[in-house]
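In response to reviewer comment 3 from the previous cycle, which asked for concrete evidence that the modeling workflow produces usable outputs, we include below a single protein chain processed end to end. The sequence was submitted unchanged, and the resulting C-alpha cells are shown without manual editing.
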Amino acid sequence: MASGRFVSVTRIVFVIVTAIFAALAGRELYASIRAASISIVAERIERGETVADDVTAKYASRTVDMIARDYCRSDITAAGVTLVLAQLDRQNINSNYDAWVVAASNARRYLQYALSCMPTNSNFWLRLAAVQSAIAEEPLSIAGMMKRSVALAPYDQSMILSRFYFWNGFTDATLSAANSALDSDLTTMLKLGDRCMVNATIKRQISPQLRPIFDRTWTSVGTAATARFQQRCSK
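The workflow returned the following C-alpha cells.
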C-alpha cells in the first residue's frame, strides 16, 4: 500500500515538472518567434547593410513594446539594444526635436531594462551613459555608469577604444567625476593596447577637455610604453 502511494506521488510530481518545463519551453519558443524579425533587422544593421529608416523605426518600436513581456534573453536583449540605438542615431535633434526626444527616451528606457537582465554587460553601461549624456549630462550619474563599464571590462581593447570615443565627448565635470576609471582606461590603452589600433584612435582630434588628462597619462606611463607608437603601421 505504501509503495503504491509512493509511485502515485512520484507520477504526480513527474507530471507537474513535465508541465512546467513544457510551459517554459513554449514561452521560449513564443519569444523566439516574436523576436525573430527584430533579430534579423538588428543583424542587418550590425553587418552595415542598408536598412530603411521606416523599417528601423518600426522594429525599434516593437522592441520597446516587448519590455512589458520581460524576455530577458541575451540574444533578444542585444538585438533590441542595436535597434533602439540605431533609431536614435538616425534622428536629427535640430530638424525634428520631438522625434529625437522620443527616440532618446526609448533608448534610455530599453537600456535600463537590458541592464536589469544583463547587469554585468560593460557595453550596455557604456551605451546608457552615452544616451544619458545626450539627453542631459549628469556628471555623477554618468560617471557611475562609466565606472561600471570599466570595472566589468578593464582589459577588453574593443571596449576601451569604444569608451575612449565617449570620454572624448564628455564635459570637464563628468571626466573629473570619473577620474579613476578614465585614468585606468587611458593607462591600459597606452601600456597594453595594440599599437596600430590605438594609434588610429589617438590620431583623431582629442577634445580640449580630454587633452590635458590624456597628455598627463601619456607622460606618466613613460617613454618605454609610448615610444612604440612612433613606429609606422602598415595600411
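Residues 2-46 form the longest helix (45 residues). We consider this sufficient to address the reviewer's concern, and the full set will be provided in the supplementary archive.
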